[in-house]
Design brief:
With 97 residues, the chain is an alpha+beta fold. 33% of the residues lie in helices and 34% in strands. α1 (19-31) runs antiparallel to α3. The longest helix has 13 residues, at 19-31. It starts with a strand and ends with a strand.
């Protein structure tokens, strides 16, 4: 199995209640039921206000590297990630477990 972690940081001046952000979070929440490669899926807003904290997190798992590639290229994933490009930056870690 491969763990796929993504942490998002909203750009300066962008708030969680911005309609673009709300739509982006909803787009990611919906992916768990849409993409068959996903074996585990959760996403949520960070609950702490520490300066080093990121704002939104995705924790997911896929079977192997080929499944990860299919997930990343899936049109629904591409559409959801595309929304976030407008208002956030992110970091990713993929590792076997």
């Amino acid at each position: 199995m491969i763990r796929h972690l993504v942490l998002f940081k909203l750009n300066d001046g962008v708030e969680r209640d911005d309609p673009r952000v709300v739509a982006g979070a909803e787009a990611f929440r919906a992916l768990g039921g849409k993409i068959p490669e996903l074996r585990f899926w959760e996403c949520a807003w960070n609950i702490t206000d520490r300066p080093i904290a990121y704002d939104f997190a995705i924790n997911s798992a896929v079977e192997d590297e080929e499944a990860l590639k299919r997930y990343v290229e899936h049109p629904d994933h591409q559409a959801a990630a595309g929304r976030w490009r407008e208002f956030a930056t992110w970091v990713i870690a993929d590792y076997p477990f």
